[in-house]
Amino acid sequence: MKTFVTGATGFIGSSIVRELLRDGREVRVLVRPNSILSNLKGLDVELWKGDLLDTAALRSGLKGCDVLYHAAADYRLWTRNPEEMFHTNVGGTAAVLEAAIENNISRVVYTSSVGTLGNPGDGTPGNEDTKVSLADMVGPYKKSKFLAEREAEKFVARGLPLVIVNPSTPVGPWDIKPTPTGKIIVDFLRRKMPAYLDTGLNLIDVEDCARGHILAEQKGCIGRKYILGNANLSLRDIFMMLQEITGIKAPKVRLPYAPVLVAAWLNEGYSRVTGCEPLIPLAGVRMAAHHMYFDSGRAVMELGLTHRPVKEALERAVEWFRKNGYV
Predict the structure, then answer these.
(1) Predicted confidence (pLDDT) per residue in 34-59, tens digit
(2) Catalytic status, residue 69
């Protein structure tokens, strides 16, 4: 069974590739001409040159494949040109799925995000059915992923056998960018986290997240969403775990939200003028106003998703960042 993977050079995508190879699958991956291939080093995969908007490369790349994992996305909390992000995340998703339907792909797993789901905002975990609208989306990344998920649903209506997965916040090795969450870990290791906001995240080991994708392919219901998450933890709890792992003192000062929000607004204004990435992304601060807690019960019950302890995932992330020169 030949499987096509987009986003394979990234954090979640490369973990999906590793899980597929462990299962003995033949894997073809979409890579751009300028892609950094370090996450694929030593892996027995077929490289297919192209990008999400190269329709000819997508159509030819999917020929002979049975399954598609669309894990590619532009994931940033700030961009000077939001249109680029919408072009990649929404337009790219439509292009990939159009090529999939033309090639009669037998199963598609689309990687969305818990950021597209509803969140009660009071610390109560959200789930796949929590009420939500585009107006609830904070920042271009969430908005673009929300609209991309709607594109995926349109293709389900056209007959594409697609399952949606909504990863929460994966942690672990191979976070090469790093992701915004990986950057929090790196900044902690560099002792650049003197204080924290009162917020929370749902963490999952990136390998458990990748395995959840494969379970969705094998057991998921077409058109259904599955949250791939594990533990709901406050940011303070996460820092305390990192303190236990590293011996580095966790920040004790909790910042009030309003002044940080004002600072983020000013910082973003400066970034729009200079083009430099803001030290305090406004979208990140606005997201932090709510504890981003989620319930992965559906994936556990229907897919058989299993979890390793989050502390072990953090340990492996710390080890990988240190080993690869991020600290």
Answers:
(1) 899 999 999 999 999 999 999 999 99
(2) no
Structure tokens at 94: 């439509």
For residues 308 and 314, is the Cβ–Cβ distance under 8 A? no
Whether 78 shows a pLDDT value over 90: the answer reads: no
Q: Tokens 């792992």 identify what position?
A: 245
Instruction: Give φ, ψ of 289 to 5 degrees.
Output: -65, -20
- pLDDT band for position 283 (cuts 50, 70, 90): low
Given this model, what pLDDT does residue 62 score? 97
Tokens of 300: 């556990």
| Residues 213, 162: Cα–Cα separation, whole Å | 12
For residues 261 and 283, give the distance between their C-alpha atoms in angstroms, rounded to a whole number.
Answer: 10
What DSSP designation does 69 have? E
CA dihedral sign of residues 207, 210, 215, 221: positive
Prior bond of 178 cis (ω within 30°)? yes
Beta bridge pairs of residue 108: 68, 162
What is the DSSP annotation of 85-109? HHIIIIIHHHHHHHHHHHTT-SEEE
Q: Specify the 3-state DSSP secondary structure of 241.
A: helix
Q: Of 110, 141, 196, 226, which one is the catalytic site residue?
A: 141
Q: What are the residues facing 232 on neighbouring strands?
A: 202
Q: Is the pLDDT score of 285 beyond 80?
A: no
Kindly state the tokens that stand for 111.
């990687």
Class of domain 2-177+202-234+293-313: alpha beta
Alpha helices in the chain (DSSP H): 11-22, 55-62, 82-86, 92-102, 139-157, 180-189, 206-219, 235-246, 257-274, 282-287, 297-298, 310-323
Q: Please name the residues in contact with 174: beta carbons below 8 A apart, sequence gap of 6 or more.
A: 11, 14, 15, 39, 206, 320
CA distance 113 to 226: 10
* Whole-number Cα distances in Å, 318 to 26, 246, 249: 31, 8, 15
